[in-house]
Amino acid sequence: MTDAAPALDVRGLSVRFRMPGGRYVAAVSDASFRLAPGSCLALVGESGCGKSVLASALLGLLPGNADTAGSAVLPDGLDLLTAGEAVLSRTVRGRRIGLVPQSPAAHLTPVRTIRSHLEEAVRELAHPAVSAAARGRRAAREAVRAAAERAAARAAFPASHLDRHPHELSGGLAQRAATALALIGDAPLLLADEPTTGLDRDLVHRTVDELRAHTRDAGRALLMITHDLAAAHRIADTVAVMYAGRIVEISPADAFFGRPGPRHPYARGLLDALPERAFAPIPGAPPELGALPPGCAFAARCPDADARCRTELPATRSGVACHHA
Ligand SMILES: Nc1ncnc2c1ncn2[C@@H]1O[C@H](COP(=O)(O)OP(=O)(O)OP(=O)(O)O)[C@@H](O)[C@H]1O
Ligand code: NI
């Protein structure tokens, strides 16, 4: 870790959804992590464990029935959880946090060309020459056009395809168009929720390598949410494993994927389930987030669990929340 202020400092983040009948769904419980500039943290875990809810909390995009606790602080001290919609929409989304969407094809508007998408984003976010007064003037239009072309080039999107519509692009080029859009505001922090879903293996590798380059080489931080452990292995400096709304382990990626390997029994189970490893799925299913057990949420599936695990929530020590780690 560097001494620089973290690009994002999340402390004790919890999100609960209020449900009819006074019930709660505890989607995220007490999540803490720091993301250093130029580094990538991969947040991994099974479907429904709370990854996207965590991302929505950081962006102020939770629905009205959500209550949050904790803090998520940017380097200048702005707390994303209390900032309010006006600040988030005007100064954070796109500008201080770039969003790499899950499905670029769905994120792009079908009737508009890639150039039109990029130029709109430049007008909105980036170009200092395009002040309100200059808008519509010829010099400003040319500046926008040039900035959009630079943005495309930065994400390796070919200039020859700028006037195409999203459906005329391969999956890889659509992903690059989405990445070009995410980079336009020059945000120091990128957030990617399942950026490789639906891509074939080669394209996963390429997309991840490109994201990596936009992060490490450019001093940006990347929070990548994925259930693709191979993609996480390829890109991450740090791995955070989420189970039933809780981060149960945070480890350096090389120790996690290499030696000594994961320290939490759930994290070990996740890796052992991979086809290229033991191909042995973890028996059972995660608990309902609306009816979490009092102790460790993994106890019912854990080979190491004892009586204490079923009644007592394990504290997090050196990045692992397990009584036995
Ligand atoms: N508005 C809501 N009201 C109640 N519960 C919700 C709401 N939104 C999400 N949830 C619940 O929060 C939990 C976490 O969902 P989330 O989308 O964060 O999972 P995820 O880890 O991103 O899964 P996936 O890998 O499938 O994307 C789920 O159990 C979901 O049903
Ligand atoms: Ni999700």
- Report how far the terminal alpha carbons are from each other: 23 Å
Output the structural class: alpha/beta
Give the count of structural domains: 2
Number of helices: 11
Subunit structure: The complex is composed of two ATP-binding proteins (NikD and NikE), two transmembrane proteins (NikB and NikC) and a solute-binding protein (NikA).
Main location: membrane
Family: Belongs to the ABC transporter superfamily.
EC number: 7.2.2.11
Task: Report on this structure.
With 325 residues, the chain is an alpha/beta fold. The model has no long low-confidence stretch (mean pLDDT 92). It is built from 11 helices and 11 strands. Strand 1 and strand 2 form a beta hairpin. Helix 6 (171-183) packs parallel to helix 7 (201-216). The strands form 3 sheets. It has a 6-stranded mixed β-sheet with strand order 5-6-7-3-8-9, sandwiched between helices. A 3-stranded antiparallel β-sheet has the order 2-1-4, covered by helices on one side. A two-stranded antiparallel sheet has the order 10-11. It has 2 domains: 1-96 and 188-286, 3-Layer(aba) Sandwich (Rossmann fold), CATH 3.40.50; 101-186, no CATH class. The longest helix is centred in the middle third of the chain and has 17 residues, at 138-154. The structure holds adenosine-5'-triphosphate (ATP) and nickel (II) ion. Residues 17, 25, 27, 45, 47-53, 63, 65, 227, 289 line the site of adenosine-5'-triphosphate (ATP). Keywords: ATP-binding, Cell membrane, Ion transport, Membrane, Nickel, Nickel transport, Nucleotide-binding, Translocase, Transport. It is a peripheral membrane protein. GO terms for molecular function: ATP binding. It catalyses: Ni(2+)(out) + ATP + H2O = Ni(2+)(in) + ADP + phosphate + H(+).
